[in-house]
Amino acid sequence: MNLKILKSSWQQALSYRPDISDIPIALRGIGIVVLFGKVFYDSYLAMAILSPLAFFWFFYQKKVLKERTRRLLGIQFKDAIASVLTNLKAGYSVENAFKEATKDIELLYGKKSLICNHLHRILKGLKNNIPLEKLLYNFGVESGNKDILEFAVVFAAAKRSGGNLTDIISRTISVISRKIEVEKEIEVLVSSKRMEARIMKGVPFFIIFYISLTSKGFFAPLYHNLFGIILMTICMIAYLAAYLLSEKIINIVV
Question: What's the structural domain count of the chain?
Answer without folding.
Answer: 1
